[in-house]
Amino acid sequence: MSSFAEAAHDADIVPVDRLPALREQLDVLDDRILDLLAQRARIVEDVAAAKRGSGSIRPGREAAILRRLLAKHTGPLPRGAIIRIWREIFASSIAQQQSLQVAVCDPAMDGRFLAAAREHLGALTPMRVYRSPAQAIGEVADGRASVAILPMPGEGTGDGSVGPGWWPGLLQHNAKGRIHVVARLPFWSSRPEGAASVQALVISNTPADPSGEDMSLIALEVPAQVSLGSLSNAINAAGFKPLTMLVHRPAGVPAAFLLVEVDGFVTADDPRLGLIAGLQAPPMIVGAYAVAIAEEPSL
Ligand SMILES: O=C(O)C(=O)C[C@]1(C(=O)O)C=C[C@@H](O)C=C1
Prior knowledge:
Layout: H1 3-9, H2 19-50, H3 59-72, H4 79-97, E1 102-105, H5 112-121, E2 127-130, H6 133-141, E3 147-151, H7 167-175, E4 180-185, E5 200-204, E6 214-223, H8 228-237, E7 242-248, E8 255-263, E9 284-290
Parallel strand pairs: 1-2, 1-3
Antiparallel strand pairs: 3-5, 4-5, 6-8, 6-9, 7-8
Helix pairs in contact: 2-4, 3-4
The structure holds prephenic acid.
GO cellular component, one term: cytoplasm
GO biological process, one term: L-phenylalanine biosynthetic process
Organism: Acidisoma silvae
């Protein structure tokens, strides 16, 4: 903090008649911030052209930018403000590149998932709300939305319509290369009063991009009777570190489906995928997301 800013902390030693001059300083800084934002937006135009229409959203890159900024930040500006400001900057540079339409699954229709979506994707981004995950997934699969926000798979949502098993439906779309998990919310795990409180996944028609510190979701098909313990051993033996596992055993089908969260950013050519013993079908990468920034709520 500059000595001037330190002095400004103490109301007693900042004479009232300095107020106009201080506000003039803020005006000068606001002009500079505006110029810099305009300069940034011009570079975003070139970035969009360089990406050749491959979709505007890069959640991994956004996460890496936020981690870098928070790591170097000092001074009285609250860390949460850095997140808020840059989330809106990302939303505006995405809006520059495409007209983003977001499908939000808010199963209880109480606005909690909409709040999480707005926190991450921007206050002015067009969003439609759906009760069922299948509807929100369908919006992305059919091209009416580029992104959907879904409750965490396996988490009950209170109205009974979600259940543990919406993710197998996602796999059918994912198998055709159309839908990918690209982010997990909240990214800033500090939840000060007023912040959205739900956990959600972001899915997109553009594949996930690495942030440098990620987790991946892999879907596995195994014989129905296989125990979770032996599967966990097989995944470890292949060289993955499984963090969480969800199992889906559809009635009347001689197979169980697993959604496994593993450490790191896994790509389809990862040799470890071929080393997982006991599978009935090749493993499928469902997506990846940046590891959240964990901070105390007071920061
Ligand atoms: O790096 C990109 O691909 C961009 O489009 C730029 C940018 C940004 O504003 O920094 C915007 C949107 C992406 O989600 C990530 C980053």
